[in-house]
Design brief:
Distance between the termini of chain B: 37 Å
Largest sheet of chain A: 6 strands, mixed
Radius of gyration of chain A: 14 Å
Strand content of chain A: over 45%
Oligomer: heterodimer
Helix content of chain B: under 10%
Shape of chain B: globular
Order of helices and strands of chain A: EEEEEEEEEEE
Structural class of chain A: mainly beta
Helix content of chain A: under 10%
Structural class of chain B: mainly beta
Largest sheet of chain B: 7 strands, mixed
């Protein structure tokens, strides 16, 4: 079957670095993406990894290891506005290219 | 900027009513999607469409139907609303040439069925 696992909650301090992990189980893997969703808002796309390695976009980085079926989102220099839920998602060819979302990680940031 | 709009932010309906949720995107995207989001369950795909008049079932299509008569508009229909369909409904779109991971979401409709 298809599944994604990510922690339900993570807490970090303002200015620090936090890593949100995601492991997946699927066949015909295309890539791993990350979305951010603030309370009451719509999910917004953050990053996409199709190949192994680290992709950096400003304070956010995303990593993928296809051999380990594992990825993470790294948030640096945390700001209070980063308090949100973060979803990992995979696209699988075995599901006609449909995207599968994880259940989300709620990031709490302490001042 | 891509803009995806949904007809209502909040909606309250009674059990047994027929409910229409509408989604419009202004970027000529081929693909459109309907999800529902529930606490602890993440986003679950209800239906999607790759073209006008085309529809495919997602993971949880039971109790729902869809309509795509125009490229920019994708409607979700609850034929007879039930209390277990109380949820946040999110519409998304993306172009055919893009990775299907990169989806643009509307603001969502929070539906309550009494």
């Amino acid at each position: 079957g298809q599944s994604l696992e990510q922690p339900s909650e993570v807490t970090a301090v303002e200015g620090a670095i936090v890593q949100i992990n995601c492991t997946y189980q699927t066949s015909g893997f295309y890539g791993l993406s990350w979305y951010q969703q603030h309370d009451g808002g719509a999910p917004t796309f953050l990053s996409y990894n199709a190949l192994d390695g680290l992709e950096e976009t400003g304070r956010f980085s995303s990593f993928l290891s296809r051999s380990d079926s594992y990825g993470y989102l790294l948030l640096q220099e945390l700001q209070m506005k980063d308090s949100a839920s973060y979803f990992c998602a995979v696209t699988s060819t075995s599901r006609d290219d449909k995207i599968i979302f994880g259940k989300g990680t709620r990031l709490h940031i302490l001042p | 900027d891509v803009k995806v709009t949904q007809s209502s932010r909040y909606l309250v309906k009674r059990t047994g009513e027929k409910v229409f949720l509408e989604c419009v995107q202004d970027m000529d995207h081929e693909n459109m999607f309907w999800y529902r989001q529930d606490p602890g369950l993440g986003l679950r795909l209800i239906y999607f469409s790759y073209d006008v008049k085309m529809k495919e079932k997602g993971d949880i299509p039971e109790g729902y139907s869809v309509s795509r008569e125009k490229k920019e508009r994708f409607s979700l229909i609850l034929e007879s609303a039930s209390t277990n369909q109380t949820s946040m409904y999110l519409c998304a779109s993306n172009p055919l040439t893009a990775s299907t991971d990169t989806q643009y979401f509307g603001p969502g409709t929070r539906l309550t069925v009494l």
